[in-house]
Every structure is written in structure tokens, then in C-alpha cells.
């Protein structure tokens, strides 16, 4: 589980940012969290770059639709297209 809605003030202060960084910070401040929101835990599924989310159910449409497309292309190429000439 990854934490979200966490107060980053301590991490910001530990770095020792300059006054210029503090001025820039004001442009990016979205809001402040109340104490209740900071203690709330959220379940977040983290997907890293290059990973696909796991599917809980397999869908037969993933097989049927491409098969129909291939059959349709073959029927057009070998049945319908030769009749057009």
C-alpha cells in the first residue's frame, strides 16, 4: 500500500530549501490537509512503468473479436475480391 495525501512539510524542510524555492512552492500549493485527512489510509494499486494491471476475469471477446476480423479479411480476399474483377 502506498501512502497518499501525506503532508510533505517535514521532507521539504529537511532538505534546507532556499527562499527562492519557498516562493516557487507557493505557485504549486494545491491546498492543506486537515488532521483527519492526514491519518486516513487509502488502498492504492501502484502500477510501475512497463507493467500491465492483472485482470481478474478472462474475457472470451479477446479471442472471438480478432478471430472474426481475420475470418472476415480472408473471406473478402479469397471470396469477394476475386468476384469484383
Automatic annotation (TrEMBL):
<keyword id="KW-0812">Transmembrane</keyword>
<feature type="transmembrane region" description="Helical">
    <location>
        <begin position="63"/>
        <end position="80"/>
    </location>
</feature>
<dbReference type="InterPro" id="IPR036400">
    <property type="entry name" value="Cyt_B5-like_heme/steroid_sf"/>
</dbReference>
<protein>
    <recommendedName>
        <fullName>Cytochrome b5 heme-binding domain-containing protein</fullName>
    </recommendedName>
</protein>
<dbReference type="Pfam" id="PF00173">
    <property type="entry name" value="Cyt-b5"/>
</dbReference>
<dbReference type="InterPro" id="IPR001199">
    <property type="entry name" value="Cyt_B5-like_heme/steroid-bd"/>
</dbReference>
<feature type="domain" description="Cytochrome b5 heme-binding">
    <location>
        <begin position="5"/>
        <end position="34"/>
    </location>
</feature>
<keyword id="KW-0472">Membrane</keyword>
<keyword id="KW-1133">Transmembrane helix</keyword>
Amino acid at each position: 500500500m502506498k501512502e497518499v495525501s501525506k503532508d510533505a512539510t517535514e521532507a521539504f524542510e529537511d532538505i534546507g530549501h532556499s527562499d527562492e524555492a519557498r516562493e516557487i512552492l507557493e505557485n504549486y500549493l494545491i491546498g492543506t490537509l486537515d488532521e483527519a485527512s492526514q491519518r486516513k489510509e487509502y488502498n492504492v494499486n501502484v502500477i510501475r512503468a512497463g507493467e500491465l494491471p492483472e485482470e481478474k476475469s478472462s474475457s472470451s471477446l479477446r479471442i472471438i473479436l480478432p478471430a472474426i476480423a481475420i475470418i472476415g479479411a480472408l473471406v473478402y480476399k479469397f471470396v469477394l475480391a476475386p468476384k469484383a474483377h
